[in-house]
Design a protein that fits this description.
This is DUF4836 family protein. This protein is an alpha+beta fold. Among the domains are: 158-229 and 249-288, no CATH class; 415-460. The protein has a 20-stranded antiparallel β-sheet, sandwiched between helices. It starts with a helix and ends in a 5-residue tail after the last helix.
């Protein structure tokens, strides 16, 4: 029987552990727009917690916490947080209010409680120990296993709507403080309306008396201050006859009248905002308490049930998810400015076709990788699949030498881009145009009618490669002017050092006639020189940069190194291409690479001053791997991108290396 029980327990253990791991994500509200997951177990897999404790002791973090709380803190373990689980931070926006919250797993609730200072009052709210900030718009509660953080802020324009002012008996906005709004009826359910405060609730709220007394004293102090400033009984006035200028008194009276009005308006507006904010904060406090009750009891709809949340690996440090990107963006738009500029009465729903944005920070040995992707709706997916269908011209790849300083590649289908640009333009800017929406439509129609996407697509196919071979300092002569005491000037020839980039840019073209005609015209009109097929543009005075053009095998080359251009023209270019670089440019729709090993040489060549304490760090850049940003374009309905860099193998992994680097630069606090 015991053996059977043991076997059963072993079989159930993974399920039990999974349920425990999912416990906190199940309490994240389903309507959260932003979710950040911190995988503390993965963090301390790559960082020794003793090293972190030593660093925090060095910078005085534990001393600060100990001074603020009731306990003594010498290490992270004294805080009571469970570092073997995940912590969640989220944000939820509506048209009226923005909630922000956090869920922290606890291993010792008593230790966590000792973070609370002796002057802070711990209240029992719905059975949970809780503390609030001064205006009670942020609440922290905890039980034996979890610490809950929940706060809220409101959007001013919502609480200035006439129907909302009437509903909650808020003060009327000060005249001319904001323009009038013509809000249409909104049948959509409002998140914050789930808590409705009746008019007489203001009279019964616990904070009302304190608020009234506070504001009475506050305005009495202001009135006293104004009285003191206006008392001129002890001031000696000396009268001086002013010069007789026409209309001077009228101008002075007008200015004084305007300044007096501005002062009165400022005081009145400040009175309005402080009164309104205090009343709205009471609403926020009620909504916070209600939402906290739903979260802690599990009655709120769960994020994990509404959205697919994948398992995080042990190398994933943090995860970011943005749901309904348009709603997040819209919540930060300046509604009043949009009204005054474009005449937008009611904020429209912003829909850029981005359903979700996600990202992760991952440690892959000595490489740190930040990955991100955006999930597009059906319409935008169709546009971008066509735009990113273009592949890189394989003839470009031989110019990616191993010793290049860096390169950027970009491949898109120009014909598809011009074809779908009007629709994308209308979708992005149409809702924000207000009374100018007809001009947005007209602009989109103009591009649709005027531009011939097939013809332009032949001239500029859309695949590009820019290669930076290096930077060379060059002395350049220029004319300056020297002035004598009588401001007579004399021309003086001077020299300056200019950093000249050695670069090569190329793009494909099936119809090079326009470039050929431009170069022919330039030879007669702009002093363009033809060096056996390599065309040199005239230099700008005072600049050492010389540009060269070459058209060969359906490729247009633009560069700054005449010798390299001649080698390409005569088929004598020695480069064969570095295979890892060739793979990146060939595979990805967009890529940027910087050869970090070249950084110390670049600093010396450009004579960039480096502080003594940073010198070793700059020299160590020669041991770094490449810094790469790349995007494969569209895969399914997602467009993705990745940023990565290889660090020296000095501390075992990328996160430990970065932490050690931070430790070197942060001074000890004594």
């Amino acid at each position: 029987m015991k053996i059977k029980s043991i076997i059963t327990a072993i079989l159930l253990l993974p399920t039990i552990l999974y349920v425990k791991a999912q416990d906190l994500i199940s309490k994240v509200p389903a309507e959260a727009n932003v979710l950040i997951t911190v995988n503390t177990k993965a963090v301390f897999k790559h960082l020794a917690i003793d090293d972190v404790n030593t660093f925090f002791q060095k910078v005085g973090v534990f001393d600060t916490i100990s001074a603020a709380g009731t306990g003594t803190f010498n290490k992270l373990e004294d805080v009571g947080i469970d570092y073997d689980s995940k912590a969640y931070f989220y944000m939820q926006s509506s048209d009226s209010v923005q909630f922000f919250g956090g869920l922290l797993p606890l291993v010792d609730a008593d230790k966590f409680e000792s973070l609370v200072g002796p002057d802070r009052k711990i209240e029992i709210v719905n059975g949970l120990k809780s503390i609030y900030n001064k205006d009670r718009t942020i609440r922290v509660s905890w039980d034996k296993n979890t610490a809950y953080v929940l706060g809220a802020s409101f959007f001013e324009h919502y609480f200035e709507r006439p129907d909302i002012v009437e509903r909650y008996m808020l003060p009327e906005p000060v005249a001319e403080a904001y323009p009038s709004y013509d809000y249409g009826s909104d049948d959509a359910a409002v998140l914050t309306d789930s808590v409705y405060t009746e008019y007489d609730d203001w009279a019964t709220a616990d904070t009302t008396i304190a608020e009234d007394e506070y504001w009475e004293d506050y305005w009495a102090d202001i009135d006293d201050s104004v009285a003191v400033l206006s008392d001129t009984s002890n001031v000696q006035i000396i009268t001086v006859a002013p010069p007789q200028l026409p209309d001077m008194y009228d101008e002075v009276d007008s200015v004084l009248s305007q300044e007096g009005y501005a002062d009165d308006y400022y005081l009145e507006y400040r009175r309005y905002t402080t009164t309104r904010d205090s009343m709205v904060n009471i609403l926020l406090n009620q909504w916070i308490d209600q939402r906290m009750q739903e979260i802690t009891t599990g009655t709120a709809p769960s994020y994990a049930k509404k959205h697919k949340v994948g398992k995080m690996g042990d190398d994933v440090i943090a995860d970011l998810r943005l749901q309904d990107f348009g709603a997040i963006y819209q919540s930060y738009l300046p509604a009043h400015l949009l009204y005054s500029v474009v005449g937008m009465g009611k904020m429209p729903k912003i829909d850029y076709g981005i359903d979700m944005v996600s990202g992760q920070m991952v440690v892959e040995g000595n490489k740190l990788v930040i990955r991100g992707d955006a999930t597009l709706d059906k319409e935008m997916s169709r546009y971008f699949k066509a735009i990113y269908a273009k592949k890189m011209n394989r003839k470009f790849l031989r110019y990616l030498d191993k010793d290049v300083l860096g390169f950027m590649s970009f491949a898109m289908d120009t014909e598809a881009y011009i074809k779908y640009m009007p629709q994308i333009f209308q979708r992005y800017y149409g809702p924000m145009a207000g009374r100018y929406d007809k001009y947005v439509d007209l602009t989109a129609l103009f591009f649709d009618v005027i531009l011939d996407e097939k013809a332009i697509g032949k001239v500029f196919k859309g695949d590009n490669l820019l290669v930076l071979h290096g930077v060379t300092p060059v002395e350049v002569s220029y004319t300056d002017y020297v002035y004598d005491e009588d401001y007579n000037y004399q021309e003086v020839e001077k020299t300056k050092t200019e950093q000249l980039p050695d670069f090569l840019w190329m793009f494909s073209s099936d119809d090079t006639r326009i470039f050929e005609r431009l170069l022919e015209a330039g030879q007669s009109e702009l002093k363009v020189e033809n060096h056996d097929g390599v065309y040199a543009l005239p230099k700008s005075y005072g600049s050492a940069l010389q540009l060269y053009f070459l058209i060969k095998d359906g490729i247009v080359f633009v560069g700054s190194n005449q010798a390299k251009m001649q080698e390409i023209n005569t088929n004598k270019y020695p480069g064969k291409g570095h295979k890892p670089y060739m793979q990146i440019a060939k595979k990805d729709a967009f890529s940027v690479l910087f050869n970090t090993k070249k950084a110390p040489e670049l600093f010396d060549r450009m004579d960039i001053p480096v502080e003594r304490q940073l010198r070793s760090t700059v020299e160590e850049l020669g041991q770094y791997g490449d810094f790469v940003v790349r995007s494969p374009g569209m895969k399914g309905n997602k467009v993705s991108a990745e940023l990565s860099i290889d660090f020296p193998d000095r501390k075992g992994n990328a996160l430990a290396f970065l932490f050690d680097l931070l430790n070197e630069f942060v001074p000890t606090i004594k």
